[in-house]
Amino acid sequence: MTIILTNDDGIDAPGIRALQRAVNGEGIIVAPKEHQSGCGHQVNTNRPIHLQRRSDKEYAVASTPADCTRIAISHINQNIKYLISGINAGGNLGVDSYISGTVAAAREAVIQGIPAIAISHYIKKPLVIDWELATQWTVIVLEKLLSLPLPPGTLWNVNLPHLEPGTPEPKLVFCKPSREPLPINYRIEGDKYYYQGDYAKRHRTPGTDVDICFSGDIAITQLQV
Q1: How many angstroms separate the CA atoms of 118 and 219, rounded?
Q2: Rounded Cα gap, residues 139 and 144, in angstroms
Q3: What are the tens digits of pLDDT across the range 118-129?
Q4: Are the C-beta atoms of residues 71 and 28 closer than 8 Å to each other?
Q5: How do strand 186-189 and strand 58-61 relate by DSSP bridges?
Q6: Is residue 16 within 8 Å of 7, Cβ to Cβ?
Q7: CB of 160 within 8 A of CB of 123?
Q8: The model's pTM
Q9: CA distance linking residue 51 with residue 68, whole number of Å
Q10: CATH superfamily entry for domain 2-224
Q11: Does residue 1 carry a pLDDT above 70?
Q12: How far apart are alpha carbons 41 and 160 in whole angstroms?
């Protein structure tokens, strides 16, 4: 089974290497050459896109995650069975899916008829992500999700929690995505506005992915295209 691995943090980000380890080095990496976080489902249609072939299993694309998916499907491999996007450094919970390049890469695959999973890791400041632990959790997640049917037009969106050392292992929880908006606040300096929304203070509707992930478990939602 040919798997495409991509992300929005860039091809050299630790998250995609953790994902690569989780699939035992299988799959083909087709990822942005540089950081593209928060770009949503942007694509480029009016300028050339540079493709750097690093090896037979690794390609750096000078464009967005959605373009990575498009190029992977149309020109790198004609027999893709699954696309996995991540592991994103930062949560992509609830309404984040509309902003996230990580989720957009998976969404584009689904639009093209290929099943997909987006995986992100919530960051609870000042903690630092343990990528080896994230790899271990991702192995468990993929074993479960790759064995389940995924209806056409849908994708799995996974958010790993950020736990203190010594915390019990997280459970896999299938849940609904939150519909609550992100906190909005700006620091104003003259005519410049600097976003200062506090991600950790967003509303936690009980039982939604935000609540599940913030509570220390792995939140899994099924998103409809």
Answers
A1: 12
A2: 9
A3: 999 999 999 999
A4: no
A5: unpaired
A6: yes
A7: no
A8: 0.96
A9: 9
A10: Survival protein SurE-like phosphatase/nucleotidase (3.40.1210.10)
A11: no
A12: 22
